[in-house]
């Protein structure tokens, strides 16, 4: 498991605040959602904007900045919520193995490179499977599905 983490710049934080606000009031940008996950120590809800992705009938969350706090919290809790306006969708999450990430990372880059491409350090949707497999450990991916009863 890679410890890669790209700290957000002031501009990133401002962009996230705007996207988060718009999503919270029910105007998600290009399908964005606000991810809510309980803190692994505090148990308090922690939120951040994310870009859910559908690949082959499954839904995923990709962490373009690497081992962010939401990733650490989701690993511990295994569940969270995706929020947009008044709509709240509870989900269960399973981390995807590095070997299974390349097609998901490729689809993520096709959909979201305009926003997150700079975090992928020269790798893009047209990169080889080998190159995507090489960077996979630095980009946590979670398959999300129905919440546990």
TrEMBL record:
Q: Which species is this UniProt entry from?
A: Microbacterium hatanonis
Which Pfam family, an example, fits this chain? F420H2_quin_red
- Which superkingdom? Bacteria
- What InterPro entries does the entry give? F420H2_quin_Rdtase, Split_barrel_FMN-bd
Give the taxonomic lineage as stored in the record. Answer: Bacteria, Bacillati, Actinomycetota, Actinomycetes, Micrococcales
GO MF terms, alphabetically ordered: oxidoreductase activity
Q: What's this protein's name?
A: DUF385 domain-containing protein
């Amino acid at each position: 498991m890679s410890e890669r983490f790209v700290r957000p710049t002031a501009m990133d934080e401002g962009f996230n605040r705007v996207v988060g606000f718009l999503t919270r009031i029910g105007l998600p940008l290009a399908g964005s959602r606000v991810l809510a996950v309980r803190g692994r120590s505090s148990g308090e809800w922690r939120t951040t904007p994310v870009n859910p992705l559908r690949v082959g009938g499954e839904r995923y969350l990709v962490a373009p900045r690497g081992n962010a706090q939401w990733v650490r919290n989701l690993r511990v809790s295994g569940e969270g919520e995706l929020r947009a306006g008044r709509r709240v969708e509870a989900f269960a999450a399973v981390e995807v193995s590095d070997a299974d990430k390349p097609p998901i990372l490729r689809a993520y880059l096709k959909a979201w490179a305009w926003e997150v491409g700079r975090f992928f350090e020269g790798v893009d949707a047209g990169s080889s499977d080998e190159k995507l497999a090489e960077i996979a450990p630095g980009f946590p991916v979670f398959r999300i599905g129905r919440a546990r009863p």
